[in-house]
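Notes from the pairing session

We agreed to fold both candidates in a single pass and log them together. This is the raw record for the first candidate, unedited. Please don't reformat it; downstream parsing expects exactly this layout.

Candidate A
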Amino acid sequence: MKKKLFYTLLIFSGIIVFFPIIYSFMSSFMTTKDIVSGRLIPSEINFINYRELLKNIPIFQFFLNSFITSITAMFFQIIICSLTAYALVFVEFREKKAIFILIMCSIFIPWEAIFIPNYFIILKMRLLNTKLGIILPFLANGLGIFLMVQQFKTLNKSLIEAAKIDGCSHLFIYLKIVLPLSKGILSTWGIYSFLNVWNMYLWPLMISTRPESRTIQIGLKMIKSEEGTNFGVLMAAVIIVIIPSLIVLFLGQNQLQKGMTSGAVKE
């Protein structure tokens, strides 16, 4: 009885969570008349909303800009965070504790507090309306470094010591031992950083003033402003926006769960 109740609650919760996505998908094939009338299923399947979207808005340019910035930021965050964590765990130097404390302090600084300084830095570097200008403040992350430090501390130190005795360099140990044993946290942080940059709105809005450099979230706002009450076109754009997020979440679900629990228990 308890098991049936448990699964019933799970199914009910799943319907509530996914209903907006399902309705958006259905609405993307509806006419404005069907949407306003409150229909849940389109009277007929047509792709007019997608045709209008591709005709009037450079949605694929926005999509490509977001994809490039998200993938690039994810790659550099994984590399920079893991290298920093490796140095803090496996390399002995005098300023290690001070640097780690500074990194930890950076986690507690709200983004709004450094938003304007970052903008002026990008302005002085003449990187407005460039993908690099969007990515630059997100090449590293204090939280990612902290999580990887905790993961690296759980690794078997005897493997590292044996590699050092055999004359292996830090680069070899990092690439051949540490990274392969830390796939969980690397995948988790990759998913997190990708979705974080993909869903950014305010920072790309400030940095990019031209349509050719804008990301998908800004494009979605432009579509809402230009199309007005054409909800079908807006829902078609929403579906295009959320597809990458859903794919990343579904494909990386197992790694995400493993990464969130890795380092919680030391053997």
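Candidate B (folded immediately after A)
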Amino acid sequence: MKKKDLILGAGIIVIALAMLLVMQLTRGEEGNQIRVTLDGKIYGTYSLSKDQTIEVKDGDFYNRIRIEDGKAYMEEANCPDGYCEEQGKISGHTQTIVCLPHKLVVEVLENENDQSFGTSDPEDVAPDTIAK
């Protein structure tokens, strides 16, 4: 190998590492949100950057969603199976928590400013199937 080849290889590696660093620094978690959908209708949208508790009550049932350290999880629910409480913490796009008995969906929205992850039409964001 020649000295110029080594310099070229090192330069490419340095540029690649600089690009990775810039991507990580600009990505941030501040824009991440969750959307809670109840029976196909949007119940609310909440920031993952703020620790909070969301109580969803409808008739005889309730679900308590906790947002903590940039992650959301189902803290408590009075559904008969309790599977929603076992689904763990979510924080990345495409992750969801579903409570089928209560027809409740908690989904992560990656960035509120990114047009590819949401629309203003509620019909476009509603689940297309809910099974009993």
